[in-house]
Write a structure and sequence with these properties.
TIM Barrel; eight-stranded parallel β-sheet; two-stranded antiparallel sheet; oxidoreductase; Aldo/keto reductase; NAD(P)_OxRdtase_dom_sf; AKR
Length: about 325
């Protein structure tokens, strides 16, 4: 974890980073390029210094967007991207490929799109079950030695896989979905990260918008919005989960902060090794999220929140069967 935080300190970064996926991928209609460039520049000006993207997002469009927006500021921020999962241009389907030659090619292509000569952190986006994790991580380690990346990361993997990978090459960070209503990293991953000195980068710390109050009983997801296929956002599951959200929102009102800020304060409280990267297309929400940087919750409020959304209380799986098949993370019984 020291190298990860040393680089963040070099650029005077707040602990909260910016997940850039939403601008180009995953939630229906994408932001037009010029609007995306303006949003990223405003994010930098308001203080964000950790930007997270991936080859997959927008079928490489997200990396190109960051390159156009932020290349002139490159020495002033921490840049992370991901390899090993990409869109097949012919079929339009995502393909997981962890072979060393694929990871090297994707890295070089990402560097060109991002208009930089190195990445501060490069994740294996998904483990390829046809390729030993040691082979994929070894290839990323060689990219560190060549100066093309500064550190190796993994995404959506289990504690056991992390240990195997770390024995091959030091893993600086693991990215996993982590929020009050998605607490799978608490099964084993978070503790293993602490033991190994690996940062836990929490994506979707706002519960894919649910904890911010952006979704209600009448919400209809846009075409292409991944949440439409996620069980906990639909039918009776959504109705049940909204009752939990009402309790959560009441705490935010009492503390005179927004639900999004409360959600981020909870994630930050889970350990110094936890780094939240909320994503949004809204500059207003970017500013709102960054203001959670200084929030510290009391022990009684943390205890109250922990009991409010226990894993068995939340209705519905976080992924559908097809999405679940692509990940390696531990699941609650």
């Amino acid at each position: 974890m020291s190298a990860f935080y040393d680089r963040l300190k070099e650029v005077a970064s707040p602990r909260i980073g910016l997940g850039c996926m939403n601008l180009s991928h995953g939630y229906g209609q994408h932001v037009p390029e010029q609007a995306g460039i303006r949003a990223l520049n405003e994010a930098f000006e308001m203080g964000y210094r950790h930007f997270d993207t991936a080859t997959l997002y927008g079928a490489t469009a997200n990396e190109r967007l960051l390159g156009k927006a932020l290349a002139s500021k490159r020495q002033g921020f921490f840049l992370a991207s991901k390899c090993g999962m990409a869109m097949n241009p012919e079929s339009g389907k995502r393909v997981i490929d962890g072979r060393p030659e694929t990871l090297r090619r994707q890295c070089e292509e990402s560097l060109a799109r991002l208009q930089t000569d190195h990445l501060d952190l490069y994740y294996l986006h998904r483990m390829d079950r046809q390729v030993p994790i040691e082979e994929s991580v070894g290839a990323l380690g060689r990219l560190v030695e060549e100066g093309k990346i500064r550190a190796v990361g993994l995404s959506e993997i289990s504690a056991d896989t992390l240990r195997k990978a770390h024995a091959e090459y030091p893993i600086a960070a693991v990215q996993s979905e982590y929020s009050l209503w998605t607490r799978n990293p608490e099964i084993a991953l978070s503790q293993t990260c602490q033991i190994l000195g690996t940062a836990l980068v929490a994506f979707s710390p706002l519960g894919r918008g649910f904890l911010s109050g952006a979704i209600d009983a009448d919400t209809v997801f846009a075409e292409g919005d991944m949440r439409a296929g996620m069980p906990r956002f639909n039918g009776d599951n959504r109705h049940h989960n909204l009752t939990l959200l009402a309790q959560f929102t009441a705490v935010a009102i009492r503390l005179e902060i927004t639900p999004a800020q409360l959600a981020l304060a909870w994630v930050k409280a889970q350990g110094r090794h936890v780094v939240p990267i909320p994503g949004t297309r809204s500059v207003t929400h970017m500013r709102e999220n960054l203001r959670a940087e200084q929030l510290v919750l009391s022990e009684p409020d943390l205890a109250l929140l922990n009991e409010m959304m226990r894993p068995n209380d939340v209705a519905g799986a976080r992924y559908n069967e097809a999405q679940q098949a692509d990940i390696d993370t531990e699941e609650f019984a």
